[in-house]
Amino acid sequence: GILIRTRDRIKSGTRLKVRIELPMFRDVIEAEGIVRWCCKGAQEGSEYYVGIRFTQVHKESAAKISRLRGYFTSPEYRTRSAARRRRDPLGLGLTG
Q1: Which of 5, 2, 16, 91 lies closest to 40, judged by CA?
Q2: Exposed, middle or buried by CB within 10 Å (0-12, 13-18, 19+), for 82?
Q3: Residue 94 DSSP code
């Protein structure tokens, strides 16, 4: 599944099609899913967080998800992510 942030409340149980565009990898993942939960963001009152459980994922997209999971849990990614947090500890988008 996936967690998304949106400006719209989406009712639990809603079935939808998900299209994830990955510009960094020049790729797209498509799947079908169902909304499991939706809650209002704590900091930004006009945003919602939505948990979507995938119900249908083509083999090609499943393989892409597996590769992404491997990348985002790799020591290389964790090192890069930690370096970004050190440069911008408050998450203000300041890099230097």
Answers
A1: 5
A2: exposed
A3: -
